[in-house]
TrEMBL record:
Region (Disordered): 522-541
Organism (species): Agromyces terreus
Keywords: ATP-binding, Coiled coil, Nucleotide-binding
Name by which UniProt lists this protein: ATPase subunit of ABC transporter with duplicated ATPase domains
Coiled coil: 556-590
Length: 625
């Protein structure tokens, strides 16, 4: 493969530390590289050096003649004086850019809900970020550098971006270097990983899952001071290997080596024990939403009724959700679907306009919000003083820990304990915020976009802490990896209804695609912008979907019985699949014939599950019509 860009013996110093020392790297045609590392170790700085936006103190960056480089930087500013159309496609005539499938794909994928001829000054911060990303992606580049491109994208938008980047170039052309904390995105897109740490850049083969395995092998040979991180990475690897087959089959590393590393690792969560502890802390009743609906006054006054009364907008309708002790649930939905409203019903911040909400007497709810307002009162105090005001001990996984030990587990150093709260980084504030909430010992914890400002190491540490937390956990996040990692069940808010997702995020994306009107020629990508321009584009148009004929009487009862029967069969198959995985784990790894037989049995069970889930979707859609 042809060489595109290289760095030779890069050296860079800031006033307080050395960022890079003698770093040599190369980027070739076909490279798809993910960059990981702790916050502050230099990931974004590395991209700026390679893209020639920052000059090194020593060494040099060389590029092939005529190479075209595009970069999305976190600090890039979108000109507020321009319209969206002017910033994205410039002065190109509409018939020219509208005839380019790539441009239509980008506009439809990122800007469907953004006014095409609107002023950028009127957009939100998230919309401006997407406009900047779209302006980059419509261009032709040999190398693309992306710094946190998934920020401000929902699960659906992240899936679109991954698909776009995978088909943007032929397999042996173009190059991508991306910094992101979204581990699903790293696994989906990247074929190599660079870890930035301690002034160096260490390369690994494969995406995030392969990187975790190689890092565990590296850490096993490290000094005893690395023991805590080794255990954490083994636990992460154990989840990756025992997780969804679609994930575990992708990394190109030796399965027998991975099994050897995790053979003595217990399951990520002891669900039976956690459920028992949750019931003892909560009782049998947590929060029940019974036939709940929520309406708000419409902001568009033109929609007022004939009598002059203000129109209303139904956000949630006929929601039935009985939250169980120890339930670990992820909530999915596009921005504006009603996720925050649903959480408000659980906490009591939102009152239903129909139905009722019943809460258990012992329920204590705490929310990790997207803002950090809770820390404002302690801005001038040192971290150690803030922690000292809270509980003196906390029980994690049956072991009593001091708040200082918990801080250490969440990545705080001894020196940082003397730092005023106002001087902490965004990620450190987020970790302190979570610790203060856990020290209050709630029994229902709500996480609203908890991954903001956190690197992959800290996400793994927080997930490890939540694994041993005995309570009910509700998570709203666009981070697919986090949702799949810390929750056991997922729901989606679709057209105001709460929908169970037996197959998780994949099923959610399928349902969203089914609701989008598309041309057959564009089935592999996102909906293209219509001929009239992106202003008319929409990500969800249920009005064009053909409704199935409604059932009544005996037909409805028959369909309901079939749905219940499918649920029972799926539960039995899930137990059989779990036993099959256990047999594979303990089977002699040198007995390839026996492993093949067990593998065939497992695949047959998974095929049966897929068929039943497809039928479950068909029947449930008929019942909901």
């Amino acid at each position: 493969m042809a060489h595109l860009l290289g760095a030779e013996r890069l050296h860079l110093e800031f006033p307080t530390r050395t960022v890079f020392d003698e770093v040599t790297l190369g980027i070739d045609e076909g490279d798809r590289i993910g960059v990981v590392g702790r916050n502050g170790d230099g990931k974004s700085t590395l991209l700026k050096l390679l893209a020639a936006r920052l000059r090194p103190d020593g060494g040099r960056v060389t590029m092939r003649r005529g190479i075209r480089i595009g970069m999305l930087d976190q600090s890039d500013v979108v000109d507020p004086g321009k319209t969206v159309a002017e910033f994205v496609v410039g002065g190109i005539e509409e018939h020219v850019w509208a005839g380019d499938p790539k441009v239509r794909d980008v506009i439809g994928g990122l800007l469907a809900d953004v006014p095409w001829h609107g002023q950028i000054a009127s957009l939100s911060g998230g919309q401006r970020r997407r406009v900047g990303l779209a302006a980059l992606l419509v261009g032709d580049w040999d190398v693309v550098f992306l710094d946190e491109p998934t920020n401000h994208l929902d699960v659906e938008g992240i899936a679109w971006l991954a698909a776009h980047l995978k088909r943007r170039w032929a397999a042996d052309s173009g190059a991508l270097v991306v910094v992101t904390h979204d581990r699903w995105f790293l696994d989906e897109v990247c074929t190599a990983t660079w870890e930035v740490h301690d002034g160096i850049v260490e390369p690994f083969e494969g995406g995030y899952a392969a990187y975790v395995l190689q890092r565990v092998e590296r850490d096993r040979m490290a000094a005893a001071s690395e023991a805590k991180r080794q255990n954490l990475m083994r636990k992460e690897l154990a989840w990756l290997r025992r997780g969804a087959p679609a994930r575990t089959s992708k990394p190109k590393f030796r399965i027998d080596a991975a099994n050897e590393l995790i053979e003595n690792e217990p399951p990520v969560r002891n669900k039976v024990e956690l459920d028992r502890l949750a019931v003892s802390r909560l009782g049998k009743d947590v929060v029940d939403l019974i036939d709940v609906s929520v309406e708000f006054a419409a902001t568009d006054t033109s929609q007022a009724g004939a009598s002059g009364e203000p129109a209303t907008k139904t956000v949630l309708r006929d929601v039935e959700w009985r939250i169980a002790p120890g339930e670990r649930t992820g909530i999915l939905g596009v921005n504006g679907a009603g996720k925050s409203t649903l959480l408000g019903l659980v906490t009591g911040a939102v009152q239903p306009t129909g139905g009722r909400v019943k809460r258990g007497k012992t329920v204590r709810i705490a929310t990790l919000s997207q803002e950090l307002d809770e820390l404002a009162e302690w801005a001038e105090q040192r971290v150690s003083a803030v922690v000292a005001e809270q509980r003196t001990s906390y029980e994690v996984g049956g072991k009593e820990m001091t708040p200082g030990q918990l801080l250490e587990r969440l990545g705080f150093t001894t020196a940082q304990l003397s730092t005023p709260v106002k001087n902490l980084s965004g990620g450190q504030k987020r970790r302190l915020q979570l610790l203060l909430i856990l020290l209050q010992e709630p029994n229902v914890l709500i996480l609203d976009e908890p991954t903001n400002d956190l690197d992959t190491d800290m996400l793994a540490a927080i997930e490890d802490l939540l694994d041993s937390w005995p309570g009910t956990l509700l998570v709203v996040s666009h981070d697919r990896y986090l949702i799949e990692r810390v929750t056991d069940r997922q729901f989606a808010i679709l057209d105001g209804h709460l929908r169970d997702l037996p197959r998780g995020v994949d099923q959610y994306l399928e349902l969203r695609r089914a609701l989008e009107p598309r041309a057959a020629a564009d089935a592999a990508g996102r909906a293209s912008a219509p001929a009239a321009g992106p202003a008319g584009a929409t990500r969800l148009d249920t009005g064009t979907a053909q409704a199935a004929p409604a059932l009544a009487g005996a037909e409805r009862r028959t369909a309901e019985k079939e749905l219940a029967s499918i649920d029972r069969k799926l539960e039995k198959l899930a137990a059989e699949i779990a036993r099959a995985h256990e047999r594979l784990a303990v089977h002699d790894q040198s007995d390839y014939e026996g492993l093949g037989v067990l593998g065939d049995e497992l695949r047959a069970l998974e095929t049966s599950v897929a068929d039943l889930e497809t039928r479950w979707i068909e029947v449930s859609e008929i019942l909901e019509a």
